[in-house]
């Protein structure tokens, strides 16, 4: 009697199972297969992005299942990624940036430096209290001439100001120039 009652209660409170996702239409499956066949380098995520542009929301895992069921091998990945490019060009790439130093007399000096991406060596290029576009162009040009004299591979430095004339038409900051404090807006 107790067993019968437990089954009765369990049947009463049993939740119906949800129907699940709607199946993908045959036309959409054919379109996914066509995209994969015509574009061998595209993976599931790229196909998913193209379908999303056309208004179809299909998960990458669903696309992967469709391709596997149809016997498509994984996509052919070309070695044209950014990481591969950087590894191939690491011998000749340089990164240039600035850092600043605050002196004992509270003067801020800006240092331009170059990092060789392969060896990660840092080369200081110059120090100035007021960096201007003219100064940066001059530092880059002297770096290019030093590299040419050293006989290293030529580096392309994009000097857009050489094409348009003067490097900067803005006046350099006054000698007493100091960066504003982060709280300059709060002052009355």
Tell me what the structure shows.
The protein has 188 residues and is of the alpha+beta class. The protein is 40% helix and 13% strand. The chain contains seven helices and three strands; from the N terminus they run H-H-H-H-H-E-E-E-H-H. Strand 1 and strand 2 (108-116) form a beta hairpin. Helix 3 crosses helix 4.
Provide a quick synopsis of the model.
This protein is α+β, with helices and mostly antiparallel strands and 188 residues long. The protein is built from 7 helices and 3 strands. Strand 2 (108-116) and strand 3 form a beta hairpin.
Strand % is 5-15%
Let me know the number of strands: 3
Shape: elongated
Helix/strand/pairing class, anyone? Answer: alpha+beta
Number of helices: 7
Strand order of the largest sheet: 1-2-3
Q: Can you give the mean pLDDT?
A: 77
Residues in helices, as a percent range? 25-40%
Distance between the termini: 84 Å
Using only C-alpha atoms, the radius of gyration works out to 32 Å
Note the main attributes of this structure:
188 residues, alpha+beta, three-stranded antiparallel β-sheet, 7 helices, 13% strand, elongated, disordered C terminus
């Amino acid at each position: 009697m107790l067993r019968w009652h437990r089954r009765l209660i369990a049947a009463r409170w049993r939740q119906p199972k949800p129907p699940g996702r709607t199946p993908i239409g045959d036309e959409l499956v054919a379109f996914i297969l066509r995209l994969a066949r015509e574009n061998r380098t595209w993976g599931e995520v790229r196909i998913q992005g193209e379908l999303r542009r056309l208004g179809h929301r299909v998960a990458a895992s669903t696309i992967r299942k469709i391709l596997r069921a149809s016997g498509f091998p994984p996509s052919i990945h070309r070695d044209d990624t950014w990481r591969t490019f950087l590894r191939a060009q690491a011998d000749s790439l340089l990164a240039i940036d600035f850092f600043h130093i605050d002196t004992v007399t509270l003067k801020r000096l800006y240092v331009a430096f170059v990092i060789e991406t392969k060896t990660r060596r840092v080369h200081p290029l110059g120090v100035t209290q007021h960096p201007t576009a003219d100064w940066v162009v001059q530092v880059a040009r002297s770096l290019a001439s030093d590299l040419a004299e050293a006989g290293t591979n030529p580096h392309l430095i994009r000097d857009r100001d050489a094409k348009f004339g003067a490097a900067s038409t803005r006046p350099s900051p006054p000698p007493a120039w100091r960066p504003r404090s982060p709280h300059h807006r709060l002052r009355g």
